[in-house]
Design brief:
By secondary structure, the protein is of the alpha+beta class. The chain has helices at about 5-15, 15-45, 50-85, 100-110, 125-130, 135-140, 160-175, 185-225, 230-235, 240-285, 295-325, and strands spanning about 90-95, 115-120, 150-155, 180-185. It is built from 11 helices and 4 strands, in the order αααβαβααβαβαααα. It has a 4-stranded antiparallel sheet with strand order 2-3-1-4.
């Protein structure tokens, strides 16, 4: 026969019904307090517009500077790419070389896997280019013979590394009949090195300015907590948890970060607009080869959210330390 269960045991073993009922109420209360904290913290910031504006302005400027450096370095990189298009290595043949010999060397170079194209420039073409330059016309007319050699303009394959281009130049110098090799890519290597230094400096600057923004919002929250220490003491005396007490200050940090991030994006857009006209003239001077771009949209969208997280972090660290000290 199945054993009968004692009703008392059933009541003891069954989960308390009042606990199950309290869970939705606790969640609703927690959710309601979050909404109240977000609204109350925003209203408190708006009640002191000057102090809020100064804090947001300092943080916004600190966050806008890395964006400006990112914009500058990105466009300098594009400038180097535009100036580096069709960047050739000029191989000057020995004087006295005839056209068929120059074409033979050019054909052998075209068969190389690291060469995109080879153009043969005749002595007459070189003389015509010199004649177009100011101050050379009279001197060239006085010459009996053309002293210029054949020149091979060798275009390396796009995407070659610096060491691969150096190897190509070394091979050109070893070709029989080549007198001089002029590599115009040295300046690009120097520009790339300078850009690497600039990128590293921009990262360091961004880290320092981010830390400065973190300290600004942290100090602002610290002063706010200190000014309301009596109210906090009363809340903790009646049983409020630390999470309950610090929640409005966390939302204050989020508001500070979000507003400063929006200001930083606005300043970056203003910088782009201010540079639009001179940049367009610069692009026209390079016959459209120079394509200057602005900050990517994903970055403009991500900055306010990242700044909000930064503000929350600063408020979280300072509020936890202040409440621990007050306890």
């Amino acid at each position: 026969m199945p054993s009968e269960t004692n009703p008392v045991d059933q009541q003891v073993n069954a989960p308390p019904r009042h606990t199950e009922r309290q869970r939705p109420r606790k969640f609703a209360s927690w959710h309601e307090h979050h909404w109240w904290s977000a609204g109350a913290s925003l209203r408190r910031l708006m009640s002191r517009p000057l102090g809020t504006l100064l804090t947001v302005a300092v943080m916004g400027l600190a966050l806008a500077l890395p964006l400006a450096f990112y914009l500058l370095l990105g466009n300098v990189q594009k400038l180097g790419d535009a100036l580096g298009q069709n960047q050739t290595v000029s191989a000057f043949l020995r004087t006295g070389q005839i056209g068929p010999a120059a074409e033979l060397i050019a054909t052998k170079l075209r068969d190389r896997s690291d060469v995109a194209a080879v153009a043969v420039k005749t002595p007459q073409q070189g003389l015509d280019e010199l004649a177009k330059m100011q101050g050379f016309g009279g001197a060239l007319h006085a010459l009996d013979d053309n002293p210029l050699p054949f020149v091979l303009d060798v275009l390396p394959k796009p995407g070659l590394a610096a060491n691969e281009v150096e190897q190509l130049v070394a091979d050109l110098r070893a070709v029989q009949g080549v007198d001089l090799v002029q590599d115009s890519g040295t300046w690009r290597q120097r520009l790339d090195a300078l850009l690497d230094v600039g990128k590293r400096a921009a990262l360091v600057l961004a880290a320092l300015l981010t830390l400065a923004a973190l300290l600004v919002v942290g100090n602002t929250i610290r002063m706010d907590i200190s000014s309301r220490s009596e109210e906090i003491d009363v809340l903790m005396l009646v049983g409020a948890s630390r999470a309950f007490v610090r929640r409005p200050y966390l939302y204050a940090g989020i508001w500070y970060g979000l507003l400063s991030g929006l200001l930083a994006v606005l300043l970056a857009v203003v910088v782009e607009l201010a540079l639009a006209e001179p940049v367009s003239r610069l692009g026209a001077a390079y016959e459209g080869r120079l394509q200057i771009g602005g900050l990517p949209p994903w970055l403009l969208v991500a900055v306010p959210f990242a700044a909000a997280v930064l503000g929350w972090l600063g408020a979280r660290l300072v509020s936890a330390w202040q409440l621990r000290k007050a306890a």
